[in-house]
Protein backbone atom coordinates (compact mmCIF):
# COMPACT_ATOMS: atom_id res chain seq x y z
CA UNK A 1 0.00 0.00 0.00
CA UNK A 2 1.47 3.33 -1.05
CA UNK A 3 1.57 6.18 1.44
CA UNK A 4 -0.96 8.20 -0.54
CA UNK A 5 -3.35 5.26 -0.85
CA UNK A 6 -2.96 4.50 2.88
CA UNK A 7 -3.77 8.13 3.68
CA UNK A 8 -6.86 8.03 1.49
CA UNK A 9 -8.04 4.81 3.12
CA UNK A 10 -7.64 6.27 6.62
CA UNK A 11 -9.58 9.38 5.54
CA UNK A 12 -12.30 7.17 4.11
CA UNK A 13 -12.70 5.19 7.34
CA UNK A 14 -12.74 8.38 9.44
CA UNK A 15 -15.29 10.00 7.15
CA UNK A 16 -17.56 6.96 7.21
CA UNK A 17 -17.57 6.79 11.00
CA UNK A 18 -18.03 10.51 11.54
CA UNK A 19 -20.46 11.36 8.77
CA UNK A 20 -22.65 8.24 8.57
CA UNK A 21 -26.30 9.26 8.55
CA UNK A 22 -25.44 12.93 8.93
CA UNK A 23 -25.18 14.17 5.36
CA UNK A 24 -28.82 15.16 4.88
CA UNK A 25 -28.97 16.78 8.32
CA UNK A 26 -25.81 18.71 7.56
CA UNK A 27 -27.17 20.00 4.24
CA UNK A 28 -30.44 21.14 5.85
CA UNK A 29 -28.62 22.86 8.71
CA UNK A 30 -26.20 24.56 6.31
CA UNK A 31 -28.92 25.44 3.82
CA UNK A 32 -26.75 24.55 0.83
CA UNK A 33 -25.61 21.43 -0.99
CA UNK A 34 -21.86 21.13 -1.54
CA UNK A 35 -21.44 19.53 -4.94
CA UNK A 36 -18.05 18.55 -6.34
CA UNK A 37 -17.72 19.28 -10.07
CA UNK A 38 -14.92 19.40 -12.64
CA UNK A 39 -12.53 22.25 -13.24
CA UNK A 40 -14.43 22.97 -16.46
CA UNK A 41 -15.77 20.50 -19.04
CA UNK A 42 -18.28 21.89 -21.57
CA UNK A 43 -21.61 20.08 -21.53
CA UNK A 44 -20.99 18.56 -18.09
CA UNK A 45 -19.78 21.23 -15.66
CA UNK A 46 -18.34 24.56 -16.64
CA UNK A 47 -18.92 28.18 -15.56
CA UNK A 48 -20.30 30.67 -18.08
CA UNK A 49 -18.99 34.22 -18.58
CA UNK A 50 -20.82 35.33 -15.43
CA UNK A 51 -19.48 32.47 -13.32
CA UNK A 52 -22.74 30.48 -13.32
CA UNK A 53 -22.09 26.74 -13.53
CA UNK A 54 -23.85 24.84 -16.31
CA UNK A 55 -23.94 21.28 -17.66
CA UNK A 56 -25.32 17.78 -17.20
CA UNK A 57 -23.45 17.18 -13.92
CA UNK A 58 -24.44 20.64 -12.70
CA UNK A 59 -28.12 20.02 -13.45
CA UNK A 60 -27.89 16.88 -11.34
CA UNK A 61 -26.54 18.98 -8.46
CA UNK A 62 -29.49 21.34 -8.98
CA UNK A 63 -31.94 18.42 -8.96
CA UNK A 64 -30.52 17.21 -5.65
CA UNK A 65 -30.81 20.69 -4.15
CA UNK A 66 -34.46 20.82 -5.21
CA UNK A 67 -35.10 17.38 -3.70
CA UNK A 68 -33.66 18.21 -0.26
CA UNK A 69 -33.96 22.02 -0.03
CA UNK A 70 -36.68 22.86 -2.57
CA UNK A 71 -34.41 25.36 -4.31
CA UNK A 72 -32.08 24.66 -7.24
CA UNK A 73 -29.96 27.71 -6.45
CA UNK A 74 -28.89 26.37 -3.04
CA UNK A 75 -25.75 24.70 -4.39
CA UNK A 76 -22.13 25.48 -3.62
CA UNK A 77 -20.06 24.21 -6.53
CA UNK A 78 -16.59 22.98 -5.57
CA UNK A 79 -14.27 22.74 -8.55
CA UNK A 80 -12.01 19.66 -8.29
CA UNK A 81 -9.36 18.09 -10.50
CA UNK A 82 -8.94 14.33 -10.90
CA UNK A 83 -6.48 14.07 -8.01
CA UNK A 84 -8.60 16.12 -5.59
CA UNK A 85 -12.07 14.66 -6.22
CA UNK A 86 -12.05 11.54 -4.03
CA UNK A 87 -10.24 13.08 -1.06
CA UNK A 88 -12.70 16.01 -1.11
CA UNK A 89 -15.61 13.58 -0.80
CA UNK A 90 -13.92 11.32 1.74
CA UNK A 91 -12.99 14.22 4.01
CA UNK A 92 -16.49 15.75 3.97
CA UNK A 93 -15.50 18.83 1.97
CA UNK A 94 -18.37 18.02 -0.41
CA UNK A 95 -21.67 16.13 0.01
CA UNK A 96 -21.69 14.51 -3.41
CA UNK A 97 -19.31 14.16 -6.34
CA UNK A 98 -21.00 14.93 -9.67
CA UNK A 99 -18.00 15.11 -11.91
CA UNK A 100 -17.59 12.84 -14.99
CA UNK A 101 -16.15 10.01 -12.87
CA UNK A 102 -16.11 6.36 -13.95
CA UNK A 103 -17.46 3.74 -11.57
CA UNK A 104 -14.88 0.94 -11.27
CA UNK A 105 -14.52 -2.03 -8.95
CA UNK A 106 -11.44 -0.62 -7.21
CA UNK A 107 -12.95 2.82 -6.66
CA UNK A 108 -16.23 1.34 -5.43
CA UNK A 109 -14.61 -1.06 -2.98
CA UNK A 110 -11.35 0.56 -1.83
CA UNK A 111 -11.89 4.30 -1.57
CA UNK A 112 -14.74 4.47 0.94
CA UNK A 113 -17.19 5.63 -1.71
CA UNK A 114 -20.49 4.43 -3.15
CA UNK A 115 -21.23 5.09 -6.81
CA UNK A 116 -24.87 5.70 -7.70
CA UNK A 117 -26.61 4.95 -10.98
CA UNK A 118 -24.80 6.29 -14.10
CA UNK A 119 -25.76 9.74 -15.31
CA UNK A 120 -23.93 9.18 -18.62
CA UNK A 121 -22.69 6.01 -20.33
CA UNK A 122 -19.45 6.88 -22.04
CA UNK A 123 -16.42 5.17 -23.59
CA UNK A 124 -12.82 6.22 -24.19
CA UNK A 125 -11.69 7.40 -27.61
CA UNK A 126 -8.85 9.19 -29.39
CA UNK A 127 -8.68 12.51 -31.23
CA UNK A 128 -6.06 13.45 -33.83
CA UNK A 129 -5.47 16.19 -36.37
CA UNK A 130 -7.10 15.62 -39.74
CA UNK A 131 -3.80 16.54 -41.35
CA UNK A 132 -2.23 13.42 -39.81
CA UNK A 133 -4.35 11.25 -42.18
CA UNK A 134 -4.90 8.82 -39.29
CA UNK A 135 -8.36 7.24 -39.52
CA UNK A 136 -8.12 4.44 -36.94
CA UNK A 137 -6.68 4.00 -33.47
CA UNK A 138 -4.90 0.93 -34.84
CA UNK A 139 -2.66 3.34 -36.77
CA UNK A 140 -1.37 5.00 -33.58
CA UNK A 141 1.64 2.71 -33.03
CA UNK A 142 4.60 4.85 -32.06
CA UNK A 143 2.41 7.91 -31.58
CA UNK A 144 2.72 10.19 -28.57
CA UNK A 145 -0.60 10.38 -26.71
CA UNK A 146 -1.59 13.07 -24.20
CA UNK A 147 -3.71 12.07 -21.21
CA UNK A 148 -4.38 12.92 -17.57
CA UNK A 149 -2.57 11.36 -14.64
CA UNK A 150 -4.50 9.26 -12.13
CA UNK A 151 -7.49 8.49 -14.35
CA UNK A 152 -8.96 5.32 -15.78
CA UNK A 153 -8.12 6.88 -19.13
CA UNK A 154 -4.40 6.48 -18.48
CA UNK A 155 -4.82 2.80 -17.56
CA UNK A 156 -7.15 2.03 -20.49
CA UNK A 157 -4.72 3.62 -22.92
CA UNK A 158 -1.88 1.38 -21.72
CA UNK A 159 -4.12 -1.71 -21.88
CA UNK A 160 -5.24 -0.90 -25.44
CA UNK A 161 -1.74 -0.40 -26.80
CA UNK A 162 -0.40 -3.49 -24.98
CA UNK A 163 -3.30 -5.71 -26.10
CA UNK A 164 -2.87 -4.66 -29.73
CA UNK A 165 0.94 -4.76 -29.62
CA UNK A 166 1.23 -1.09 -30.51
CA UNK A 167 4.12 1.09 -29.36
CA UNK A 168 3.04 3.90 -27.05
CA UNK A 169 4.67 7.20 -26.07
CA UNK A 170 2.50 8.43 -23.19
CA UNK A 171 2.58 12.15 -22.38
CA UNK A 172 0.93 12.51 -18.98
CA UNK A 173 -0.07 15.69 -17.12
CA UNK A 174 -1.70 16.36 -13.77
CA UNK A 175 -4.41 18.73 -14.98
CA UNK A 176 -6.82 18.40 -17.87
CA UNK A 177 -5.94 21.90 -19.09
CA UNK A 178 -2.28 20.88 -19.43
CA UNK A 179 -3.30 17.79 -21.37
CA UNK A 180 -5.47 19.68 -23.84
CA UNK A 181 -3.11 22.62 -24.33
CA UNK A 182 -0.19 20.28 -24.95
CA UNK A 183 -2.19 18.49 -27.64
CA UNK A 184 -3.25 21.75 -29.27
CA UNK A 185 0.35 22.97 -29.30
CA UNK A 186 1.47 19.79 -31.04
CA UNK A 187 3.39 18.19 -28.19
CA UNK A 188 1.58 14.91 -28.82
CA UNK A 189 0.04 13.22 -31.85
CA UNK A 190 -3.22 12.20 -30.19
CA UNK A 191 -5.41 13.09 -27.23
CA UNK A 192 -7.34 10.43 -25.34
CA UNK A 193 -10.16 10.67 -22.82
CA UNK A 194 -13.88 9.82 -22.73
CA UNK A 195 -15.53 10.36 -26.12
CA UNK A 196 -17.85 12.99 -24.65
CA UNK A 197 -14.81 14.77 -23.21
CA UNK A 198 -13.12 14.79 -26.61
CA UNK A 199 -16.22 16.36 -28.17
CA UNK A 200 -16.38 18.88 -25.33
CA UNK A 201 -12.75 19.91 -25.70
CA UNK A 202 -12.97 20.09 -29.49
CA UNK A 203 -15.92 22.47 -29.19
CA UNK A 204 -13.57 24.95 -27.47
CA UNK A 205 -10.83 24.80 -30.11
CA UNK A 206 -10.26 27.79 -32.40
CA UNK A 207 -10.53 25.52 -35.46
CA UNK A 208 -12.51 22.42 -34.36
CA UNK A 209 -12.92 21.17 -37.94
CA UNK A 210 -9.18 20.53 -38.07
CA UNK A 211 -9.55 17.68 -35.57
CA UNK A 212 -11.25 14.30 -35.85
CA UNK A 213 -12.37 11.76 -33.23
CA UNK A 214 -11.40 8.24 -34.30
CA UNK A 215 -14.16 5.60 -34.49
CA UNK A 216 -12.79 3.13 -31.91
CA UNK A 217 -14.27 3.17 -28.39
CA UNK A 218 -11.83 1.19 -26.21
CA UNK A 219 -13.58 1.03 -22.83
CA UNK A 220 -16.80 1.18 -20.83
CA UNK A 221 -17.07 4.41 -18.83
CA UNK A 222 -20.23 4.57 -16.73
CA UNK A 223 -19.97 8.11 -15.35
CA UNK A 224 -21.71 8.14 -12.00
CA UNK A 225 -22.22 10.50 -9.05
CA UNK A 226 -20.63 9.24 -5.84
CA UNK A 227 -21.20 9.58 -2.09
CA UNK A 228 -19.37 8.42 1.04
CA UNK A 229 -19.74 4.94 2.44
CA UNK A 230 -21.84 4.63 5.60
CA UNK A 231 -24.77 6.96 4.90
CA UNK A 232 -27.46 4.84 3.28
CA UNK A 233 -30.11 7.54 3.66
CA UNK A 234 -28.11 10.00 1.54
CA UNK A 235 -27.08 7.26 -0.90
CA UNK A 236 -30.79 6.48 -1.48
CA UNK A 237 -31.66 10.15 -2.06
CA UNK A 238 -28.87 10.66 -4.61
CA UNK A 239 -29.68 7.41 -6.38
CA UNK A 240 -33.44 8.01 -6.58
CA UNK A 241 -33.01 11.60 -7.72
CA UNK A 242 -31.35 10.24 -10.84
CA UNK A 243 -34.11 7.63 -11.19
CA UNK A 244 -36.73 10.40 -10.93
CA UNK A 245 -35.25 12.19 -13.95
CA UNK A 246 -35.39 8.96 -15.98
CA UNK A 247 -38.86 7.92 -14.76
CA UNK A 248 -40.31 11.30 -15.75
CA UNK A 249 -38.99 10.93 -19.30
CA UNK A 250 -40.41 7.43 -19.57
CA UNK A 251 -43.86 8.59 -18.43
CA UNK A 252 -43.67 11.63 -20.74
CA UNK A 253 -43.64 14.24 -17.98
CA UNK A 254 -41.65 17.35 -18.89
CA UNK A 255 -40.86 20.64 -17.24
CA UNK A 256 -43.52 22.29 -19.38
CA UNK A 257 -46.39 19.78 -19.18
CA UNK A 258 -46.06 18.52 -15.61
CA UNK A 259 -49.02 20.54 -14.31
CA UNK A 260 -51.33 18.70 -16.72
CA UNK A 261 -50.40 15.41 -15.04
CA UNK A 262 -51.70 16.54 -11.65
CA UNK A 263 -55.21 15.46 -12.65
CA UNK A 264 -54.05 12.09 -14.00
CA UNK A 265 -55.94 8.99 -12.87
CA UNK A 266 -52.93 6.75 -13.61
CA UNK A 267 -51.77 5.22 -10.30
CA UNK A 268 -48.14 5.23 -11.50
CA UNK A 269 -48.29 8.97 -12.21
CA UNK A 270 -50.07 9.71 -8.92
CA UNK A 271 -47.39 7.86 -6.92
CA UNK A 272 -44.55 9.50 -8.83
CA UNK A 273 -45.85 13.04 -8.36
CA UNK A 274 -46.71 12.51 -4.68
CA UNK A 275 -50.48 12.83 -5.17
CA UNK A 276 -50.70 9.38 -3.64
CA UNK A 277 -48.36 9.65 -0.61
CA UNK A 278 -45.70 7.13 0.38
CA UNK A 279 -42.60 7.63 -1.77
CA UNK A 280 -41.63 10.85 0.02
CA UNK A 281 -41.89 9.31 3.48
CA UNK A 282 -39.94 6.26 2.31
CA UNK A 283 -36.98 8.37 1.22
CA UNK A 284 -37.16 10.99 3.99
CA UNK A 285 -38.27 13.85 1.73
CA UNK A 286 -41.35 15.91 0.98
CA UNK A 287 -44.01 13.86 -0.85
CA UNK A 288 -43.70 16.18 -3.87
CA UNK A 289 -39.93 15.87 -4.17
CA UNK A 290 -40.08 14.31 -7.64
CA UNK A 291 -42.69 16.85 -8.81
CA UNK A 292 -40.45 19.65 -7.58
CA UNK A 293 -37.39 18.27 -9.40
CA UNK A 294 -39.08 17.94 -12.78
CA UNK A 295 -40.81 21.33 -12.40
CA UNK A 296 -37.44 23.04 -11.94
CA UNK A 297 -34.98 20.91 -13.88
CA UNK A 298 -36.95 18.84 -16.44
CA UNK A 299 -36.64 15.12 -17.17
CA UNK A 300 -33.43 13.29 -18.14
CA UNK A 301 -34.07 13.67 -21.86
CA UNK A 302 -34.53 17.41 -21.51
CA UNK A 303 -31.38 17.75 -19.43
CA UNK A 304 -29.40 15.62 -21.89
CA UNK A 305 -30.52 17.53 -24.98
CA UNK A 306 -29.91 20.93 -23.41
CA UNK A 307 -26.38 20.18 -22.29
CA UNK A 308 -24.85 17.58 -24.61
CA UNK A 309 -27.51 16.62 -27.18
CA UNK A 310 -28.25 17.78 -30.70
CA UNK A 311 -29.29 21.23 -29.54
CA UNK A 312 -26.00 21.81 -27.71
CA UNK A 313 -22.53 22.65 -28.96
CA UNK A 314 -21.45 19.03 -28.37
CA UNK A 315 -24.26 17.58 -30.58
CA UNK A 316 -23.96 14.07 -29.10
CA UNK A 317 -26.34 11.25 -29.99
CA UNK A 318 -28.39 9.66 -27.18
CA UNK A 319 -26.94 6.22 -28.01
CA UNK A 320 -26.56 4.17 -24.82
CA UNK A 321 -28.06 7.08 -22.89
CA UNK A 322 -31.48 6.62 -24.49
CA UNK A 323 -34.27 5.05 -22.45
CA UNK A 324 -34.27 1.25 -22.18
CA UNK A 325 -37.42 1.02 -24.35
CA UNK A 326 -35.71 3.06 -27.10
CA UNK A 327 -32.55 0.99 -27.38
CA UNK A 328 -30.54 2.58 -24.57
CA UNK A 329 -29.51 1.68 -21.02
CA UNK A 330 -31.40 4.34 -19.04
CA UNK A 331 -33.78 2.52 -16.71
CA UNK A 332 -35.51 3.33 -13.44
CA UNK A 333 -36.77 0.80 -10.91
CA UNK A 334 -40.50 1.17 -10.12
CA UNK A 335 -41.58 4.13 -8.00
CA UNK A 336 -43.77 2.23 -5.56
Write up this protein.
The protein has helices at 3-19, 23-30, 56-69, 85-90, 105-110, 152-163, 176-184, 195-204, 232-251, 267-272, 279-283, 289-297, 300-307, and strands at residues 33-37, 46-47, 53-54, 75-79, 96-97, 113-115, 120-122, 124-129, 143-148, 168-173, 190-194, 211-213, 221-223, 226-228. The longest helix has 20 residues, at 232-251. Mean pLDDT is 92; it is low at 1-10 and 13-20. It has a five-stranded mixed beta sheet with strand order 10-9-11-8-12, sandwiched between helices. Strands 4-1-5 form a three-stranded parallel beta sheet. 44% of the residues are buried. Helices cover 39% and strands 16% of the residues. Strand 2 (46-47) and strand 3 (53-54) form a beta hairpin.
**What's the story with the biggest beta sheet?**
5 strands, mixed
Order of helices and strands: HHEEEHEHEHEEEEHEHEHEEEHHHHH
What's the N-to-C terminus distance? 44 Å
Principal-axes shape call: globular
Tally the helices: 13
Please specify the SSE layout and strand pairing.
Blueprint: H1 3-19, H2 23-30, E1 33-37, E2 46-47, E3 53-54, H3 56-69, E4 75-79, H4 85-90, E5 96-97, H5 105-110, E6 113-115, E7 120-122, E8 124-129, E9 143-148, H6 152-163, E10 168-173, H7 176-184, E11 190-194, H8 195-204, E12 211-213, E13 221-223, E14 226-228, H9 232-251, H10 267-272, H11 279-283, H12 289-297, H13 300-307
Parallel strand pairs: 1-4, 1-5, 9-10, 9-11
Antiparallel strand pairs: 2-3, 6-14, 7-13, 8-11, 8-12
Helix pairs in contact: 3-9, 3-12
Amino acid sequence: MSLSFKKITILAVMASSVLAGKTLDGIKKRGTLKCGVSTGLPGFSTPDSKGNWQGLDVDFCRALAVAVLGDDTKVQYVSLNAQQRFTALQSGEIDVLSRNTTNTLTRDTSTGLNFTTPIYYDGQGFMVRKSSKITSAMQLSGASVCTQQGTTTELNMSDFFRANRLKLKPVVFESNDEVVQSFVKGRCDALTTDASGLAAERSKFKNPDEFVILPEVISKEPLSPAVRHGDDEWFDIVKWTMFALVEAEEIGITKENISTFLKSKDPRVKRFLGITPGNGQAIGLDEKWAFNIISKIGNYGEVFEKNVGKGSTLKLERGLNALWNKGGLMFSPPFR
